[in-house]
Amino acid sequence: MAIDLNAYFDKISKLRMIHRILIFAGTVVLIVGLYIWLVYIPKTGEITTIKKSLDRLEREVRIARVRAKNLKRLEADLVNAQGDLKVALRLLPTTSEIPSLLKNITKLGNDSNLEFLLFSPEKQVSKEFYVEIPVSIEVMGSYHDVAKFFDKVGKLDRIVNVVNVSMIPIKELGTTLKTSCKATTYRFKEGEKAESVHKKKK
Question: Is 104 a residue whose pLDDT tops 80?
Fold first, then answer.
């Protein structure tokens, strides 16, 4: 059914000016109200929701960037720690290497023209991550030979500390000395080493 707009407009044209103004104003208010209700309010809600989502995503991105920086630093620290561990493992003998290391120290003394009077491994001292292995040593020889022996021990691949050195001439004004000292080497505790290797494999 068609609506006769001309008749509608003819009726409006016959109205007084104030009535026409009120009808126009009412129409505008109705259109604006419908726009606000049907378009503006829903879109405003969508914009608010999108803005909240955007703020949340920006926070997550900032957190992710910080974590990425920390992860790179931690990975670098881990690589350095693993490198330090490898160096330490090369310097500290394992349990199975201790006998050959002690035998090697004896050989260095013999090669330095020293006569061993005492070579006595003492009770091992357990520390938090490693074990001290002290050995009481007494040798007889010249000062030069003793110095040469200590120099060779210091050049070993493994850590060996020589402490409590005492030198006494065998004879008054003689050049042959009786030298006593304590040589200490170290090893990682087997449990600590195994745990470190296990963590590294993970």
Answer: yes
My answer on whether 21 and 54 are in the same domain is: yes
Hey, what's the torsion of the CAs at 110, 113, 118, 120, to 10 degrees?
A: -30
CB 132 within 8 A of CB 189: no
| Predicted confidence (pLDDT) per residue in 13-24, tens digit | 666 667 667 766
CATH number at residue 130: 3.30.70.60
Instruction: Pull the structure tokens for residue 49.
Output: 């929701």
Range of the domain at 119: 95-194
Cβ atoms of 162 and 183 closer than 8 Å: yes
Tokens, residue 34: 């419908």
Instruction: Give yes or no: residues 61 and 148 share one domain.
Output: no
